[in-house]
Amino acid sequence: MEDAGVLIDYRHAATPEDFDAHLCIVGAGPAGIAIARHYLDTAVRVCLLVGGGMAGDAETQDLYAGDSIGNPDLDPAASRLRAFGGSTNAWGGGCIPLSRMDLAARDWVPHSGWPISYAELEPHYARARDLLAIDEHDFEAGGFRSAPARRPPRFEGDRLVNRNFVLSPVFFGQTYRAELERAPNIQVVLHANVLELLSDARGEHVHAARIGSLQGKRGQVRAHRYVLACGGIENARLLLLSNSSVPHGLGNGQDLVGRYFMDHPRGRLGTLHARAVSPLTRPYDRSGGKGPTPVFPELCLSEDAMRTHRMLSGRVRPVAVEGQVPRGIRAARRLRSALRKPRPDEGGSLEGQMSQALRFGGGHEVQSPPRENLARLALQLAPGVGDLARGVFNRLTDRPIVPPDHVDVVGYFEQAPNPDSRVRLGEELDPLGQRRVCVDWRLTPLDWHTYRTATRLFGEDLARACGGSFQADPWLHEEHAPQLQGTAHHMGTTRMSDHPADGVVDRDLRVHGIDNLHIAGSSVFPTGGWAFPTFTLVALSMRLAEHLRDCLFLL
Q: Strand 469-472 relative to strand 435-440: parallel, antiparallel, unpaired?
């Protein structure tokens, strides 16, 4: 057996083709790393397989490419990162727990309800705070108790509420690389792509994971237990590709693998005009946070509103859109842009491109040509000294540097579980010879009812709060989704259920009918609420690691 406790590159000729372990984890994003860390310096031998390297590269990323045939459109390769640390290399850091209502069965939401309660998940949320370096913040169902730096406005009635979330500073690949690399019982194998899980003739026991590199090396990982932790799309794809013994794919006896695909659809709902909008927008603009783990509010639909109007959950962010930028401010921004050194994730890196793609809308800064004359830019500041002085005063008094012209109201929503919204296998093959993914992302009448009703509720209450007027966008009256896009929060494709007829994994995240295969990540979510999923998927992964611990220590 090869030396453990190192990063192993499967592309190298000296690297063995095959590996043996007690536990094989497929995927090194937050779920896979959380599980692997649970066994640091124990007697459990862990093999952590990474489909890419330590950073993204175009050749590896292409393995995520696929087709999109649904409405809205979705690019599978543009929303997940195939590298150590996974998509947390480009994430925003938002953490918030689900609410009790998110986990409960709602009679107006078909296929809703988790097989576990908030009380069962709560202790694992508490432990997940440490992994995410946000343990200083107390939480409750649906949010954190810590106060944000700017107090959000209060709204009349009971339709809107503020929920606080925390920004984690943890990038999993950077933060936890060293300790995983040092651990004598953990092998991290880079560029080892799982091609198929090999099982017995009935598909009830996995005996090996067949792996390969883009350079042509092929081998196997033999383990006692396997965990798929490679995302809401790839978890389903790997089960469907594992069809040597069972033609329909592992865990797919009920034709549920890949179904119930969900994201958090987002789009601009309308515009708000008022004389003074800064008190309304500033608390939500993610500036002015305090410390390494700042707290910010999100403006959400209340549970009473969801029950009354029989709708899904959602939140909005009122985004101030600048009016005309004064000459001096414009020149100062160009000069700052010309002087600023690029960050490591900018330019050609996949991490930087993904971070930019996942932002809604663009910033206001003007990017300077790379060879713009700095002296000329400095001279252009002189006529705008008064503009600069006003801008500095505004910043010192916590006001926008440039007064807003209007407010864009951007909505982010829970998606209704829908068996016709699904991940399939396409006909095109990737460079490894595997069928690429085909995403058929679909919305339901309940989704559209939610967008329209929420737009009215948010619009009315926001306008009332600032004495302004709200105008809804016209697309909300149509039956297609050209203005909606995803948030890269892929969920539901291997949903959790107590009964095989209703889902793919049980309450312990074991695939129904397979004795040694588990799944971690947001693909197991039966519903997603509106909450950022990482905090919950890390908590579930830690719960799974604890469940597996006794089984593995008996080996």
A: unpaired
By 3-state DSSP, what share of the chain in percent is helix, strand and coil, each rounded to 5?
Answer: 30, 25, 45
Whether the pLDDT of residue 367 is over 50: the answer is: no
Read off the tokens for 411: 């909505």
451's CB contacts (< 8 A; 6+ apart) are: 265, 267, 269, 411, 413, 476
Check pLDDT > 70 for residue 394: no
How does pLDDT run across 4-28, given as a tens digit for each residue?
456 899 999 999 999 999 999 999 9
- DSSP for 419-469? TTSEEEEEEEE-TTSPEEEEEE-B--HHHHHHHHHHHHHHHHHHHHHHT-E
Per-position DSSP letters for 7-58, written without gaps between them: EEETTSTTS-S-EEEEEEEE--SHHHHHHHHTTTTSS--EEEE-SS-SS--H
d(CA 210, CA 197): 6
Query: Residues with Cβ < 8 Å from 253, sequence gap 6 or more?
Result: 203, 246, 500, 512, 513
Tell me the Cα Rg of the chain.
24
- Sign of dihedral through CA atoms 155, 158, 159, 161? positive
Spell out the residues 6+ positions from residue 344 whose beta carbon is closer than 8 angstroms to its own: none
CA distance 56 to 355: 13
Q: Would you call 463 exposed, middle or buried from its count of C-beta atoms within 10 A (0-12, 13-18, 19+)?
A: buried
pLDDT in tens, 186-219: 999 999 999 999 999 999 999 999 999 999 999 9
Q: Is the pLDDT of residue 381 over 70?
A: no
Residue with tokens 């090869």: 2
pLDDT at 214: 97
Q: Does residue 348 have a pLDDT over 70?
A: no
Give residue 453's Cα distance to chain centre.
26
Of the two residues 20 and 80, the one the predictor is more confident about is 20
Residue 224 Cα to chain centre, angstroms: 30
The whole-angstrom separation of Cα 149 and Cα 273 is 25
* Cis peptide leading into residue 445 (ω within 30°): no
State the DSSP code for 259: B
pLDDT band at 168 (very low <50, low <70, confident <90, very high): very high
| pTM for the structure as a whole | 0.89
Residue with tokens 């649904």: 70
